[in-house]
# Entry
Amino acid sequence: MKKVLKIWQNNFGRNFIILFGSFMILELEFRLISKLNLLEYSFLRVSLGVAIIAFIIAFIEKKLPNIVAKIINSFLIFIASIYGIAELGFKNFLGVFASVSTSSQAGAVLSYTKDFVMSFKWFYYLLLIPFIIVFIYYIFIDKKIVLDMPKKKKGKKNILYFFIYLFVLSSLILTYIGTLEFSFMQNKTQVETSLELFKKPDNPSLAINDFGYISFALLDIKEYFFPGEDQNINVSYDPNLIPNTDLEVEHKEYIPHLTVDNDFWKDLIDNETNKNYNALNKYFISKDSTMTNDYTGLFEGKNLIIIMAESGSNLMLNEELYPNISKLYNEGWSWKNYYSPRNTCSTGNNEMSGMISLYSIYNNCTANVYRKNTYFESIFNLFNQKGYNTSSYHNNFDEYYYRTTIHKNMGSKKFYKVQDMDIYYGTTYGDWASDVDLMNFYLKSLDEREEGPFMSWITTVTAHQPYSNSSTYNDKYLDLMPSEYAKDVRRYMSKLKTVDEAIGVLLEGLEERDILDDTVIVLYADHYPYALSNKNLSEAYGYEINIDNNADQVPFIIYNSELTNKIYDDYTSYIDITPTIANLFNLDYDSRLYMGHDILSDDIDDMVIFADGSWKNAIGFYSTTTNTINYYTSKVYSDEELLGINELVSLKLDMSSLAIKNNYFEYLKKKMDNYKATSE
# Structure
């Protein structure tokens, strides 16, 4: 007991135990709530990381007055608790863990702080327990236990203690470094090694599992101010084994979707000195191309309207409440395993991914950060090359996303924001513009267009959160909604009624203009209404949405009045929209330039890839957060097979990020134009 008291009377020992104990409790709570495995070797690394952090802080506090150390410790434990709660809430709300790099959206997030905080589960606040215990100890107990110790004189003994501290800290750090490389400390199915992730923690889900959320916070701050180098991506490339050059197919009339000359690409690779551009050149030329098929050109020459429905969900498929959306669903083609995975900026990023078939970058608002990029292979430019009149519409202003710039650089010949539409839009967060007004304006703009086929992209807004307050569209059809549902769900469904009316206005307007038969309508949702609790939504859906990212499952419909209804089982997402549409309209495109694929093709493995590298297919759902797979069939992957899939998934995400960060497609277009000019 005397030894324990002696340690406790020592400033360093007392502060180290308080900090280490508090941080470890926080990490344990966080892992239990996040359903991370406590029995993995990685938890030893988490414990070591916490010990190092506590050791350094306690050593700094060693010579500080006790009251100062108390304030510092209380503050750090409180901040760690609040940060952990926020991370859990962010993961629950947006499906991803937050990063400092997401701060570009801080202003937008503040607009729905109430909905964000209300989405927290009560047990998230258990992370405050260590702070409460320490606070109570400092207020009521500390003075009674900690005795005043006489100041020690400087001398050989103090120098000896200093070297002991230094030796212990060095041992902890060296052991920690070893855990980053020890083979038994690596997850067999994880693509990035712990060392690579430590140097560049660009995947928070993996980093939190490997290092703990407190250490990740420090690594994330370091990465923000002093970013590590992107790891060299090894791309398999053999100029003598380029696919799609001599294809043998069952139906000889089928040909690959190729527009970029392979000889040009090979020459470019031989002469390019920029390692990032060359990695991308080698990656894209080596990809397998999808082929033309029985669906190629089915809609050739027709008009196209793509509607990205704000906060759409499977509740939209209620025939009684939403007859117009149900008409599209019941008479068109739909995919029941379609997903719109959430990410840092789900609306803007998922709109961007739908237009260019590239995955957004995990930890930033990609559409905004890289808004000056251009994409000659975007869906707008594919239709521009066919002589279509392209345009885009959104009944809000550039408050969240810089669409005026983004859509222009995507190739939209004219973007209309809400100020251009001469319609009412609220100045407060709870009162959005009407999608009915949006569609009426859109039809009017069709009357004023130039002759020829048109391609339009429409992004709606009425169904946007919040659903917790009273507002025009929250309450407009509230009485029509099922009384057994939670009120916020009923308010959301009330907003969907306005969305359905807008679809009705569109269908009626196209029919009046005698162009309905010649027009294809594509409808998908940017994300599900994540401001609503999983519990309340699950009750409305009739199934549990908080399993295997089921919440991200939303409608995807392709409609034309001449189609026969079909429901497909393929796993798909917004990443597949552009290549699928390009094939249906027989556009000139190179399928190698897209991360998605034509989902009506037979030569693909259908899969949904989520922002953190998790994935889902007919076999099961693999979570990168927990490094586990939940199987749906008797088929079981070996560790080698899982690693192979994860490597393919990681490569797609990495190459998408690299292409966006380096504005690769603007570079490629310039090189292609120069090549053609010198070849003529």
In short: The first strand starts at residue 303 and ends at 309.
